[in-house]
Amino acid sequence: MTLAYVALGSNLEQPAQQVGAALAALGHLAGATLLRHSSLYRTAPVGYADQPDFINAVALLDTDLPPLALLDRLFEIEQRFGRERSFRNAPRVLDLDLLHYDGVIMSEPRLTLPHPRMRERAFVMVPLAEIAPAGMLPGVGDVAALAAALDASGVERLDESRGTRQQQE
Q: Is residue 107 pLDDT above 90, yes or no?
């Protein structure tokens, strides 16, 4: 079995419920076991700004699927949720990105590992650091240090049971 990290995001059709349902779908994915997932985070859109905020999370899977087969399964889940790819950074009901696959470095037309832009995105690195603070990304660096170096001011952790902000003590 191999550890793989998957980013989840949604900003359409009750995004917190979409991400929760997608986590459940990952938990039933043949050839993989959902080990844990981060909290949910509300984040501002990146790229195309004229759209609703996103709800994001990161999940850790233990899988016997090779990277491209896992990617295909993630795309199948997106399709079941009604994902449409109208233009880059468009609003979406569900986005699943394979971030990291247990030390694999690859660059193919369909998949680059580790994900080439993850280290620049607080909406990915903050939830990843929550569940893998001691993680190392091959050719990229230490997860916690990468997350700490980003401006995370637009990343707001939510209370998962209600989809609302958690109170800071």
A: yes
- 3's enclosing H/E stretch is strand 2-10
Of the residues 73, 97, 119, 121, only one is catalytic, namely: 97
Model confidence at 82, pLDDT cuts 50, 70, 90, reads confident
50 is catalytic: no
> Is 142 tagged catalytic?
no
Neighbours of 89 (CB within 10 A): 12
How far apart CA 101 and CA 60 sit, in angstroms, is 10
Residues with Cβ < 8 Å from 31, sequence gap 6 or more?
63, 64, 65, 69, 70, 73
pTM for the complete prediction?
0.90
Asked about 165 being catalytic, the answer comes back as: no
Spatial CB neighbours of 167, under 8 Å, sequence gap ≥ 6: none
Q: Do the bridges between strand 155-159 and strand 41-43 make them parallel or antiparallel, or are there none, so unpaired?
A: antiparallel
Distance CA 9, CA 23 (A): 11
Residue 97 a catalytic site member: yes
Q: Which is catalytic among the residues 42, 73, 80, 95?
A: 95
